[in-house]
Amino acid sequence: MIETLETLAEKIKGCTKCELSHTRTRAVPGVGNPHAKLVIIGEAPGRDEDLQGEPFVGAAGQLLTKILAAIGFDRDDVFITNILKCRPPNNRNPLPHEIECCEPYLHAQLRALRPDLVCALGTFAAQTLLRTDEKISKLRGRFHQYQEVPLLATFHPAYLLRNPNMKRLVWEDMQMLRARYDELLLT
Ligand code: URA
């Protein structure tokens, strides 16, 4: 059975599968176009996202919005979500157990969305979706497959805020993403 995005969002908001449910303000299921051809997947909500219930609304989110605009997308054109739907305290890294509890929601969202392209932002998204331990610096810059769907990995916008010299590489990755998107629309 394929659950709808709305049903999944309700389940996520009521989820108590892991201890992050005790510390979250709001769960953050995802936002955007339910018919999006491109889905963007980050790591986990931060402080602003936890307060607002929407992914990528803080500083890293503002940079993501600009990156998307640079290749001609509004936030409403795509669907944006995270590996974890609840904020880890003090924005620490997701724990394996938390990823294990939360991952089924993401896979179910992707079954509902049936995107043509996926973009994984940062180590946790790329490694979780591709089931690999390889570093993001090795994974970025090329297409992989998530199930049947082409997946491009790139650096996380929060990493770019700390390492602005890496923006050039993300720019190259985004050009690849846009080119593949345009190709897919032609077929
Ligand atoms: N970083 C993420 O990975 N996701 C968000 O939603 C916000 C910051």
Give short descriptive properties of this protein.
binds uracil, 6-stranded mixed beta sheet, 187 residues, alpha/beta
Describe, in plain words, how this protein is organized in 3D.
The protein has 187 residues and is of the alpha/beta class. It has a single domain, classed as Uracil-DNA Glycosylase, subunit E. Helix content is 47%, strand content 14%. It has a six-stranded mixed β-sheet, sandwiched between helices. The longest helix is centred in the C-terminal third of the chain and has 20 residues, at 167-186. The mean pLDDT is 97. The protein binds uracil.
Using only C-alpha atoms, the radius of gyration works out to 15 Å
**Shape assignment:** globular
Largest sheet: 6 strands, mixed
Mean pLDDT: 97
**End-to-end Cα distance:** 28 Å
Strand tally, please?
6
Fourth-tier CATH superfamily name: Uracil-DNA glycosylase-like domain
Helix fraction? 40-55%
User: What is the level-2 CATH architecture name?
Assistant: 3-Layer(aba) Sandwich
Number of domains: 1
What's the CATH C level? Alpha Beta
